[in-house]
User: What shape does this take?
Amino acid sequence: MSALRPTTPRFKQNVREALANENIQAAMRNYGSGFVNKRAAARAAMAEFDDIRDAARDLKNHTLANLDLYLARYEAEVLEAGGHVHWAETAEDARRIVLEICRDAGATTVNKGKTMISEECGINDWLEENGIRPVETDLGEYIIQLRGETPSHIIAPAVHVTVPEVDELFREKHAHLDAGRRLDHASMLSEARAVLREKYFQAEVGITGANMLIAETGQSVIVTNEGNGDLSQSLPKVHIVMASLEKVVPTLEDAATVLRVLARSATGQEMSVYTTFSAGPKRDTDPDGPEEYHVVLLDNGRTNMLGTEFQEMLRCIRCGACMNHCPVYQAVGGHAYGWVYPGPMGAVLTPSLIGVETGGQLPNASTFCGRCEAVCPMRIPLPKMMRHWREREFEKRLTPSAARWGLAFWRALAARPGLYRMATRMGAFGLRLMAMGKGRLAKLPMGGGWTDHRDFPAPQGGTFQSRWKAMGGRRR
Amino acid sequence: MPASDAFSGAPRVALLVTCLVDMMRPSVAFAAAKLLENAGCAVEVPEQTCCGQPNYNSGDRAGAQALARQMISAMEGYDNVVVPSGSCAATVIKDYPQILADDPEWAGRARALADRTHEIVSFLTDVLGIEAVEARFPARATYHDSCSGLRSLGIKDQPRRLLASVEGLELAEMADAEVCCGFGGMFCVKYPDISNKMVGNKTGNIDGTGADLLLAGDLGCLMNMGGKLSREGRLVKARHVVEVLAGDTATPAIGET
Assistant: This one.
């Protein structure tokens, strides 16, 4: 899978493979409810948590309603500080811009802090194709880069990998180290750190993402737990920030509001270990910092969401709470979704960005259990927007024809109460006959989706409405 | 039309039976009617079909609108409408006003019906203030929180409070009681592999409590979990919570004879 070759249309096949993959299943069991419990504890520890969610939602709604204004101010502030702003309408534009900056800097190695926008643009493959070596410096990203994979979670990119797999991977890829060394959690971390530490000083360019862009000050903000982002952006002579344009917030105060719900929703931390503000290239009075500072602002379909029923999705701050709480995500992991963004936020965003024809499976693969919306710090009505995608598909006749016929049949039947009563009586009678005196059916013709995995309880006999009527409209 | 029974003053309550209960398990509706009558309500069953949720959740908005209008017409004129399903109740309470928001003739009627509609356990407790039932059922039970009832309607403590008053019933909480069972209406047949994984997690958690009885407020979820429990050869029986609250437990459990 890569951003340029989504496997979302074969979602069902991906799901079967993920369910049959013992490593993924072991990793997902391990992932379990760790984040869920940590978020719950963080929320319980802050009485005003839900009020801040409201404030965060409101400030983002205001920003989206005035996006042009705040982006213009942001750009002016970055320019004022001596930085450059590059507007990338598409992922292809962003790739071209990043490559030009890297070539101008004579780069052979690029260090990367964690950025989902670079995933969306397929930057790593693109740089490699052009003879530049990208080095992921986030531990999880480093692991999946060694495995030749993409992230399966937006904040825990290697959540699908088990510890024994990392053990094996490090022994293979760090062949210069003593083969007999013992590896556990802590020593794996320090080994990766030692290997990466050398590379920090080799890169000419550092690429990071941005959790927020602040219009008032022209700063970009990243939150990390490993400090790798700071090293990636401050050691090389060129720093590129890759951000999508809805990341802008009006003021520093607004950024603080978002930060108060971000880490708590994501990992249950009050704040992540590092919160870093970048405000342009090194000034004459600064002891260090990048000589050049570039911001690549990606649209890639987002402005098309403005003014539609999907605008609220642009409030997303990428905390990952929706996927942490999603039973579908927990069952299959992130790669099954087939593109960059998994889980409930991915189920809404993917069809928005790559088209419902390609991404349409995802908003259908939900029980509408509502847990994602219940925990979203930005109060994004994710199930409602998944339903909107189903409506678009239905209007465009992308819904499978069996389902369309089934719905038309059900609607026609339910609109005719007399016929409905007769059909349900016959249905109950027929199912009881088929159960042959047992309380349940182990097989249903055309009902394999149900009975392959579970029994179908037989009806009690007679419909309630017919029995109630026969009793004279009373209970006894 | 009089707002309440002309002679007794009892509130006139329409029972919105739901398709699944109507066709698969009438005993749930009889139990609901019994609970309502015991609480002093005059129960009526207007002629009805489906609330339209399958169409609404599948993207067929026009179909959902047509069935919503039909259900509103059927259920108007009662003091309250009561539903033995959190999911169907949430469709009327939360979705109808949105489905018909742009229809000047029906938007107000949708909101009026939404205001008078309640899930059965929530109606008994939150509206009528009932805190105990007269029922006896010796069992070790575990209660699954169905998603719509829990997250759309805030039903969590209400069934547990009433179940605590059932003589002989012991309630054991399962792990992840608030996590979806994988039913999801059409979801379970559109994505059977994911659904199977989810319901398998659920039956494992149910079994982990040592309970011999699974209770919930939605028949769809119960058929899913009950069908998986029996397929796995587990001995836990499944029932709708109102059957136990009404003391109507002579009928075999879901999937049993």
